[in-house]
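Case study.
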Amino acid sequence: MDPVVLVHGGAGDITDDRVSGKIKGVKLAAVEGYKALKNGGSVLDAVESAVRLMEDDEYFNAGYGSVLNLNGDVEMDASIMLGSDLNAGAISITKDISHPISLARLVMEKTPHVILSAEGAQKFAESKGIPILEPGALVTDFAKKALEDYKQHGGQLTEIGGIIKPKNAGEVG
Amino acid sequence: TVGAVAVDGLGNVAAATSTGGINGKMPGRVSDTSQIGSGSYADNNSGAVSTTGHGETILKFCLAHSICKDMENGKSARLATKESVEKMTRRLNNTAGAITVSKIGEVGISFSSKRMAWAYVKGSELHFGIEQGQHEVECVEDE
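After joint prediction, the assembly is written out as follows.
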């Protein structure tokens, strides 16, 4: 059977000016993942290398180029799963690391858990020698502008007990 | 959000998904992407899925797992992906997308959002698209 590596670069109302950058990025990622398989890597190696490439690409809402929370910070989530034994690893609310998907794989391979979050995930990353970036290193101008637009038009989600349903400008996911 | 799924020549599958979340989220908000069964799912008995879109909706619907279970019950990757995405959007009124490979190498790509960038390599062909219904093919350049 022919192997297959399939990638996505996020779904939502992606604006016209970002279409070509997204298509270029997903094509590069699919080829990168397939190359990993062709060179004897596992399906885990293939999906990790494809996602890592897109985490470096500011056209995508992951790693460098992530959207911002209300404080203007990047907080990232990732998960990875292997079909042969249903082993899985994930991280959430992590900051200042370039490749959340690789940290998720370390959780799967080096801990008895499936998900590590926030400070615990951060400490685990440090313990595995993953470089911790300077605060703000993953923030792009595009993301800052999207947050400003959202604050002006999207309403404030910080109200307790009353959630205002804003129209979220730009991309979701 | 970005994601990848893969199947090798023996039917082994894997899925991976990574995201910065949703624009203007509250600090501490956890997305569907880190939840196995919502953002990613992989099982050699059916296939592998990575999802993207309105996270809270994908989380409530357990979209990735839903697609794998449909494949386990005999649906093709294409049909399982399309029907689960449509069912979720109908039920919860928010949009999302998913990519799927089955254990026998089928491909499923579906999104109810306006656009979703996708690409896959099979043999020497590179397939890609971003608009509804768009499917372009190129040759993968040899190394």
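Observations recorded in class. Chain B touches chain A through 81 residues (CB under 8 Å). Chain B has three helices and nine strands. We will return to this complex in the next lecture.
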